[in-house]
Design brief:
With 75 residues, the chain is mainly α. It has a domain at 2-8 and 21-63. It contains three helices and no strands.
């Protein structure tokens, strides 16, 4: 129960304190990482931080791939 409350608080803080473009991928990664960290040995905060970083990285990678696929072919 405590982990769920902490994840909710963390999610709320991330939504309030982050800009929309910068939060892309972070919130979802933080939730998943926080839960995984909690069950992997009470490291929920560390898991949330790592999940946020990984989520941002993956969101940026998908955005770059999307932009590269939309570029017209070179002549």
């Amino acid at each position: 129960m405590r982990a769920i409350v902490l994840c909710g608080v963390l999610t709320t803080l991330l939504m309030v304190g982050a800009e929309g473009a910068q939060a892309k991928g972070c919130i979802k990664g933080a939730i998943v990482g926080g839960i995984a960290g909690h069950y992997a040995g009470r490291h929920g905060w560390a898991g949330a931080a790592a999940g946020c970083v990984i989520g941002r990285h993956e969101a940026n990678r998908r955005e770059r791939e999307r932009q590269n696929s939309q570029e017209p072919p070179a002549r």
